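Note to self: the last two entries modelled the partners one at a time, which told us nothing about the interface. This time every component goes in together.
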Amino acid sequence: MNFGKQLKEGLITNNPVTVQLLGMCSTMAITTKMSNGIGMGVSVIIILTLANIFIALLRKVIPDEVRIACFIVVIAGFVTMVDLSLQAFFPAIAKSLGVFIPLIVVNCIILGRAEAFASKNSVGASAVDGITQGLGYTAVLIILCAFREIFGMGTFFDAKVMPAGYVPAGILTLPVGGFLCLGALIAAMQWALNKSKAKAESKGKEAAE
Amino acid sequence: MTGDYKALKLIASSNPHIRNNEDTRSIMLDVLIALVPALGWSVYRFGFRALVAALVSVGSAMCWEWAYRKALKKPQMLGDLSAAVTGLLLAMVCPVTLPYWMLIIGNFFAIVVVKQLYGGLGKNFMNPALAGRAALVACYASQMTNWIAPGEKAPLSLSGVDVVTAATPMAMIGEDFAGLSAQYSVGDLFIGWVGGSAGEISAMMLLIGGLYLIFRKVISWHIPVAYIGTVAVLALLTAPAGASAVTYMLYSIFGGGLMLGAFFMATDYVTSPVTKKGQIIFGIGCGLLTVFIRKFGSFPEGVCYSILLMNCTVWIIDKHVKPVRFGVDPAAEKAKKEAAK
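The predicted structure of the combined assembly is written out below.
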């Protein structure tokens, strides 16, 4: 188990949104406000970690042929727990996230990590994977939310931050704006990754010589 | 044999070998010249803000193009003037009261997102200026529909332009045609004594520019004639009760952005079909969509969206309307195919 390495993978080199391109739908739909992004991010971290732990525990019991159905049952259990807790303790966030909390059941990140990681690795490693991948997802949500809320509505955590004369760019709060921002973020990320990869390669070559 | 064969400029192409001095730059220069009458009218009608807005728009379009190509270490193409044309067209389809910084953002969308991200001139699938306008409408809807009233001039101030506004003929034509014809005559619309976007108001000036382009063979007549013709025919058929069909038709074709769209936007080489037959289909499609959006849509004017939508269909049109190869007899080919079956 290597927490640092897995954290780097979750946040940057194997980020669930910008590299694996999972969970696009919720990313685009809810990243209009910071409060939504944090609420969604924290919910996904909790559900992903718990689901990963339990799927790793059950990985030897679950028959291969029906594994997807079993994963969904485990995930749906935790999603319901989080959904009900949100409704009980944070009704405002639950209301603004709406259907996207129940939809975490079919969020590709959670099913993807269950299939690709938790069903093949130990409980400890799977728990760390859940936390790090969840953090990677949350980081992307926060970047997009901050950009779209500040420039699309002129606010940050619902508090006015832009000068009075600023005219909010309404396009950013529309789905179109979500696509544009996410596309730009993915492009920037890939550019940075390729650059560091090229650098590492040239360094490796020098060392070989 | 020289080893430096790459430096040799051998041009291998099939006949016919016609040479002329036409290049992107000369074509774009012609388009700019053709836009001068409409721009001049706009300055006369709305005041110097129209000219300043056009200059800001052209300047920012060229800056964005330069900056993007500089950042990506691509060869600079500013000399072909295509960015200048995009900038000028964007300024002409926006209200003259639009703050300058919004024009700069619109140009960013037009040049960087729509044109350069797809590979630059010749590879964009949508008209950059119109896509820039559509983005601005989505961003700043109220500023993009702030139409200055006829007879008013726009002050040069940087932002917060406070002027008397009025509904454009296009906003009135659907709901209150009798009121429209009482307020503006056909002549007013033709010459441009109405409210509207900076460069769209004068059908006459745009027609002069369009005819100049056709005369210079920069554009062919197919798209504008098919486009305006379709709108005219549909207007004749759908004239409201109690109004003369011909008058209604004239209001429909001289009002709004139809002239600018038909001559300057729909004819963009990059985003229109290659063949003459395809161009006629494209023009008719634009005309149908324009009338449908005006009649049934929630927007008063449909030229911008109809051209953007038809831009997306160009690849289908080009695929299905292929010209017959030289030397091939289509009837014989068809008979051969039938026989093979």
